Amino acid sequence: MTRTHALYRLLRDELTALGFWKAKPRGNPAKAYQVMREKHGDKTNL
Q: What global pTM score does this model have?
């Protein structure tokens, strides 16, 4: 577990340094918006 965790942490740090996570597309924005509204409650009547 420790070795795997350290490996993932190292990989994450390297990819973060390269800006990989910021550049990666986040999937379907419409679906993300819908999930966000369900999670936080529908505060707007759109």
A: 0.35
